[in-house]
């Protein structure tokens, strides 16, 4: 299903809503954070590095948007105890969670499987697949307290159709597609919906690393597509569940 990239999001559409975004310090995660804060959401910005998160916090606040909450956590090393602490903090502070955007990912390396670096394979699967599983598991209790909770997993074209040399990244995104589908079936009768979104091309560090020879001026900025994610998180958009969505270019 295709989702239009542009939407009219009202200024107070997310008033009273709490949304957690992973990898919120830069790239697509920061663009989503800015749009959510613009719509009045309290955004919990999860990122691995406090300095980088603080820099992003300044960008949000200096733009006159709703003050976000910073949550430094390295998704590669995070333990069940860390996720439990996050759940406790979230429930104590807000009592609920209305949206969860699994955006953080690493590219790993582009290499034949025969030569793929084993340590990098483990890191990529840990950050891109195992961490979203644990984060989701520990945040379901908070999502259950919302009357309309929406989970979005950022996927990729190579998570839906295999392409040679995309290795652990591609496998992690295929895994995310399967995980989201399973979860959407389990939560079908609840008020929590689960979908995957392929954002298509985005002019970010990940894209530059994957396509170093590309003319980046032809690639859409993350800010051009982030409204689509905010629209999907909004209670004013129709609730869908278990779908593979793609943002139009
Ligand atoms: N760019 C594209 O063209 C494209 C296309 C299809 C799908 N996507 C998907 O869209 C999403 C956003 O991509 P992007 O282009 O914005 O990527 P990006 O520019 O590389 O940013 C990745 C984000 O993930 C964070 N991250 C990485 N490892 C982490 C860890 N261990 N713990 C916590 N955070 C970590 C990064 O934080 P640091 O700053 O600390 O590294 C950064 O905030 C990803 O899921 C990607 O797979 C992107």
From TrEMBL:
GO terms for molecular function: oxidoreductase activity. InterPro entries: NAD(P)-bd_dom_sf (IPR036291), Sc_DH/Rdtase_CS (IPR020904), SDR_fam (IPR002347). It comes from the Bacteria. Pfam families: adh_short. Signal peptide: none annotated. Keywords: Oxidoreductase. Belongs to the short-chain dehydrogenases/reductases (SDR) family. This is Oxoacyl-ACP reductase. It comes from Candidatus Pseudothioglobus singularis PS1.
